[in-house]
Amino acid sequence: MSESNSPLAQRLTALSGAFIKVSSPAPHVALVELFRKPVNAFNDPFWEEYGKVFDNLSLEQDLRAIVLASALPKLFTAGIDFQALGSMANFDKDPARRALQTKEHISMFQKAIGAPERCPYPVIVAVHGAVLGLGIDIVTACDVRYAASDATFSVKEVDVGLAADIGTLARLPKVVGNESLVRELAFTARNFSPTEAAQLGLVSKIVQGSRDEVVKAALDTAKMIAQKAPIAVVGTKHLLLHARDHSVQQNLDYTATWNGAMLQSVDLSDALKAAQAKSKPIFRPLGKHPAKL
């Protein structure tokens, strides 16, 4: 049976919607592609679909790694569709009630764009062309970030009169190593290159070329991850996120408790037996609802 006809591939394809394509190009791997012509500008239906796709992927028990990319050949995303902001015109005219409705709308938007971070499986984002505004919010919520050599980045929000509010200002200072440069980029909205993004720590790999080349590189990494013990990979992501938001000692204590249970997994013995036999281990699916870990 080819991978495109496997039960997993059929389930993943069924998650595709009006703006997002989902496929399984390799065993245990999902490819999620943004596809809203002409420039992947996000309106409400787009980001709502985005959040639902990743939340549904989180419940897929036989998945092990995800690649996020754009299906459009020229760019990743131009960011928010500002014409779509007209929907806020229907909010209450009373300032206090309007503020509450705006807060709720922003919070729902934040939750949708943060879905890859909630997903228990590693998410590798592969960007090319323009990665503007909301594009930075999207990539900072992913685990591994690759850029094609033709990519251009910008924290664009101040150019349109607002502070970035969907995740960039919360996550970017924590995923990079130069807060001075983070502030410069956020204050000026200037474009920056993949080379500067790598120096900043925003991306870990620059791939020569454009969409096809960077997606291939990301899929190669996803296939490598998919061969590892799923209990170990899911636990690693979970513990890394805990470490980001807690002290060293708190994370050490939590990890000891976590592995008190996880070290009892059959994955550990399967990996050791395969190593002794010099063969590739075959691991069981995680089981139901890994997103609830």
TrEMBL record:
KW tRNA processing (keyword) present: no
InterPro entries: ClpP/crotonase-like_dom_sf, Ech1-like, Enoyl-CoA_hydra/iso, Enoyl-CoA_hydra_C
Key word Transcription regulation present: no
Assigned keywords, A-Z: Fatty acid metabolism, Isomerase, Lipid metabolism
The protein's annotated pathway: Lipid metabolism; fatty acid beta-oxidation
GO biological process, one term: fatty acid beta-oxidation
An annotated Gene Ontology molecular function: delta(3,5)-delta(2,4)-dienoyl-CoA isomerase activity
SUPFAM superfamilies: ClpP/crotonase (SSF52096)
Any one cellular-component term (Gene Ontology): mitochondrion
Family: Belongs to the enoyl-CoA hydratase/isomerase family.
PANTHER family reported for this sequence: DELTA(3,5)-DELTA(2,4)-DIENOYL-COA ISOMERASE, MITOCHONDRIAL, ENOYL-COA HYDRATASE
Protein name from the UniProt record: ClpP/crotonase
